[in-house]
Amino acid sequence: MATSWNITLNDTSPVFTYYPYYDGFGTGNGWQVWYSETGYNTVFANPGVGISAHITSLPGANVTFSFYGTGIELHGTANCTFDVAVDGIFSSSLSSPSDVLYSKQTLSEGTHSLTLTAHPTSGQQLAFENAVIYIDQAIPKMVSYSNTNTTFLNYTGNWSTATDVHVPGGVFHSTKTMGSSVSTTFGGSSAVLVQGIVNWGNWQYTVSLNGTQSVLNASSFWFIPDTTLFYEGGLDPTQIYILNIADTSEDGNILEINSVKLYQPQPTTPPSSSKPSNTGEIAGIIAGVVVLLALVVGFLFWRRSWRLKTVTSARNFNVQANEITPKARATHFPALVAPYTISSTTAKIRPEKFPLTPIGGSTDDSLRERAIARGPGSATSSPDPYGEPRNNMSGSLSFLEVHHSPRPSGLEPPVQIPDSEVDRILGIIASRMDMPERNLSSSPPPQDMNMSKHYIFFVLQDA
């Protein structure tokens, strides 16, 4: 998380106090508002186009304001020397070849006052564009409430709504009645801004924040559709504040409101107390089950093999020299499924990063002139190069191949056995049927090996 943020106050804001006056005619007499596209004003209430600046050629002309923060930066141009006083500490005979007139980033967090004083000689000028206030705090969330939000804003007196294409949102609230006011109650904020209109015909107004009043002036020869009418930083987010803005000039003079903005600190996420992972426990259980199954299957196979061996050994003396036992074996086994893997290229796909735009406006001239709003990069995910795992082995346990020993070819025709031999053979068979082997209770009776073969086949197939 970023640990600092900034807010830019434009030179047209009434929070700046200009000496000898805010706006006039002739830079030699004091300050005059100028726009990079329109130039100097020739018609009252004319909307300016381009970047604004207060310009003076009057020695001793100054601008003063107070701010809450840990750093300050003044932007503008000057071909003369000037002084800057911060909290009564002077930096004299300064000059600047760039658009940064003054910068101080090591202030203690708190409320500070600053005065910029121009010292031009013949033909020299100083132009003041804006002030950038830095606060060493986590970037807050900015919440903007439109002037039409009557749930958040409470209007008293004689107010009306008007429209203008130059105003953000196109709609603003206006009053010409002395004593008309708008108020709100809020909390959870570290700074508050009131945005409104400065124009020819507008005049004094007061802003009260928890009883502390500021008297300001919204009058200019220009029509300035949206600027900061009031700013206060260093608020306590745990405290409730009552903000009240009132028209204190005579009837007929105008006060116009666009919006109220709150800067709300975001709660820091405490490090989650990581619970002991049960991954190892689960893996151990799975491994134990697998081992147990393997032991059970091995025991079953061993037991069956032992039984077959017992039966075979008990029958060995009955096996004739030319007796052939059938054999079965599996020649194909199922292929193991390969686990999914992520390639290094896929793993490195990340959204492109863009620099943060300072809250309150950019301090870069080229960005201000182009008014470019840069949004977050998007990362387009490439198709997954890995399809479903496929078993390229065509065989499985269901494809057990049963092999029998080949029978001898070219068998001789059967020999005719005399009747006397038949009687002798029957006697031998009868004598064998009386042998004790038949009473072995621990061994199953001999099974047809072909039946055993098919039994193994279907058991494995079902498994």
Can you describe this structure?
This protein has 463 residues and is an alpha+beta fold. Among the domains are: 1-138, Jelly Rolls, CATH 2.60.120; 140-268, Galactose-binding domain-like (Jelly Rolls); 327-336 and 392-402 and 444-463, no CATH class. The chain has five helices and 26 strands. The two termini are 55 Å apart. The relative contact order is 0.12. Residues 306-413 and 435-463 have low confidence and may be disordered.
Under the CATH scheme, which class of one domain?
Mainly Beta
CATH architectural label of one domain: Sandwich
CATH topology (fold) name of one domain: Jelly Rolls
**For the CA atoms, what is the radius of gyration?**
47 Å
Low-confidence segments, ≥5 residues, pLDDT <50?
306-413, 435-463
Q: Tell me the major beta sheet.
A: 7 strands, antiparallel
Percent of residues in helices: 10-25%
Keywords: Membrane, Transmembrane, Transmembrane helix
Explain the layout of strands and helices.
Blueprint: E1 5-10, E2 17-19, E3 31-35, E4 39-40, E5 46-47, E6 52-56, E7 62-69, E8 71-78, E9 81-86, E10 89-94, E11 100-104, E12 110-119, E13 126-135, E14 141-146, E15 154-156, E16 160-163, E17 171-175, E18 181-186, E19 191-198, E20 204-209, E21 212-217, E22 222-233, E23 241-247, E24 255-264, H1 279-315, E25 327-329, H2 344-347, H3 365-370, E26 401-403, H4 419-433, H5 449-462
Parallel strand pairs: 5-22
Antiparallel strand pairs: 1-13, 2-7, 3-4, 3-6, 6-13, 7-12, 8-11, 8-13, 9-10, 9-12, 14-24, 15-18, 16-17, 17-24, 18-23, 19-22, 19-24, 20-21, 20-23, 25-26
